Prior knowledge:
By secondary structure, the protein is α/β, with parallel strands linked by helices. 39% of the residues lie in helices and 17% in strands. 45% of the residues are buried.
Amino acid sequence: MEAAIEQERPRYIRLERIPQIMDSLRQAFQSGITRPLEWRLGQLRQMKQMMDENMDKWNRALMADLHKSAPNAFLQEIGLILTDLKEAIASVKSWMSPTTVATPVAQVKGITTSRVHTEPLGLVLIISPWNYPLSLALQPLVGAIAAGNCAVLKPSELSPNCSSLLADLVPRYLDARCVAVAEGAVPETTALLEQRWDHIFFTGSTDVGRVVYQAAARYLTPVTLELGGKSPCIVAADADLKIAARRIASGKFMNVGQTCVAPDYVLVDPSIEAALVQALKEVIPQFYSPYPKNCSDYGRIISARHLQRLQALLAEDAHELTLLHGGVAVDLDDLYMEPTLVKCSPQFQGRLMREEIFGPILPIIALPNLVEESIKFINARPKPLSLYVYTNAHATAERITGACSSGGFCINECVLHLQNSALPFGGVGASGMGMYHGKYSYDCFSHHRAGLDKAKIFDVDLRYPPYTDAKMAKLRPLL
């Protein structure tokens, strides 16, 4: 892996400074700095300038932390941030405009106006993960700024180069009175969570999400939890196996499987199991060469601890697994693990099928009576973040997606739903709560406020007590 960008000892925020930063940001918000359209547009344009002027620095940081090449850095992170910025800059004025809604006849339609107004929540905390350390930090920040909030961004300490770069560049480009970056690890995150926020946006594991949720409950702080889970992929007997194999492999091994919406396991019709496995084995070297370790498009595991966890998932239940591809080439020093396919039975209960894998290991399970058995299999587990169905039959796709709840789904595709900013992205149940991307990010960080404006004319006695039988006879049909 490329040598890490030279940096001093981690510049973690001093714990005693956190309340001072909170007070300063809250004072800035209460002064009204962030509310005007001009401030929001100015900050969004500054953020775009920050992205454009530092492309080489972003690329080097992502290479140092995750061995992410410049093309992958753009496709997986930088391009998504720029897309969100472009949409927000073009649309924030209309997003801020009140929306007129219907007024009931009983409230004298015509002299009463009903509108939905949006207002910023206040001071928000964004806790971002290490697997996409730029996009999962800055995409929520786009929404927070567009909605007129002050924000503290807490990047992951496990991607130190990206964290350090954010801490360096954000104060240079954005209004330091209103936006701050707090670097740190568990103690610093814990101290931040002890403060009173108006919203907390967290992306990460389900276990840590529970900790965040419990901390937020102290002040009844609303939260957005972007978590994960075991996203299933169902391949029916009538699926186009060439397309299915290409799209599954691309979605699974992108960022070495360290993607919250990556296919976690495959459920396949037994009649095509061997053909699907063969198609996957053929496409992996096409994408990443016969030696993925030397391929610029194949990344690295974030840390030795995470790599050892992946090794343990394979080793602990090796007698119940059949290795179909890979699983041998592992380099702890280089944080490398090759793409791996394994076969297991539907009854297998090992950690590989209990925990989110979050690495380049893809279990394949053959299920007779695939459609109905897949529904039972998926619904016996926590609700996943994503669901993928490969079939040529519309009825099959409708049956599975209608019977299985998930944060989102794709039919004959994989992962790409999160790249469409017109679609909401978020989980359900154990895979998270809340949603963002595009205007949904603006809505995530906004309070939707009911407003009613009524003229002083036509103030009839009918609406006021006493409510006699005669009045009620006239009122009931109006309600």
